[in-house]
Amino acid sequence: MNPPPSKPNVICLMGPTASGKTSLAVDLVQEYPMQIVSVDSAQIYREMDIGTGKPEKEVLDIAPHRLIDFIDPAVPYSASQFRTDAFREIDEILDVGDTPLLVGGTMLYFRVLRDGLADMPRANSQVRSEIEKLAQEQGWEAVHQQLAAVDPDSAARIHPNDPQRIQRALEVYRVSGETMTSLHAQSQAKQEALLPYNLHFFAIQPEDRGALHGQIETRFRRMLNEGLVDEVQALHSRSDLNHQLPSIKSVGYRQVWQYLDDEIDYDGMVEKSIIATRQLAKRQLTWLRSWPSLQSLSNSSHQSVQHVLKYMETISI
Prior knowledge:
Elements: E1 9-14, H1 21-31, E2 34-39, H2 57-62, E3 65-66, H3 79-95, E4 99-104, H4 107-115, H5 125-138, H6 140-150, H7 152-157, H8 163-176, H9 180-194, E5 198-204, H10 209-226, H11 228-236, H12 253-260, H13 266-289, E6 294-297, H14 301-314
Parallel strand pairs: 1-4, 1-5, 2-3, 2-4, 5-6
């Protein structure tokens, strides 16, 4: 009997915001027959170019990106939809003999791609009411501390100012008796055998947090100079968009929207945007610290390109 065919290989490049992922990906596709699939929950939206850091046209001409700029900001988009779309793009790339290169910083999308969707208990209105009552009486920070006591991994990933995710993670534990972390681990074990690809994970993990913070501030101020406020103003003028939509909750867009609503002044908007982006980078790095079988890359593009290419030789891509 012939042995089963080996699974095709897919390269995944992760990293915090402003760490240089796009630049490295562009360098890679010029060295090897790869095609890029974006793994970014904000770059999927049309009319949101500057604040999401979409590659410029000159870059896209050299290294086209799949799964960017294809959803209207008013339309919801889920991680499960991303998984379906990413599988389709990966298969198309493999069909022409190229290697898929998945690039981005939306760690949830990478996890759903790798692990599938865990079977989570349904929402329980009574338990939710109990958690909301606790939050009203003691604050969401106290609820976050309760989550940390039973599910420290989820608590580390979820910011104390993110009540929706705090509530859901604690609800899962109270309803099922199992942590969200445990349920995801069980899902991962099931999906590993079903996943039709071998996923190889690389990440840019800056050692100098101060330097990363400087890059974040420099990039945001450049976005402002390039017209970010005007970009958000165009969205703000649309009657079908509001601050509750996931697209408008994206870092930078939320703060500029508040500025346009006269909730904060310009300097406050700039400060809050930079702080929010730093907090995003911190959460991304927290995900990466617990990511299994992760190949760490330096900030040097040349060294990182050679690292990835050498690794690809070892897995016979």
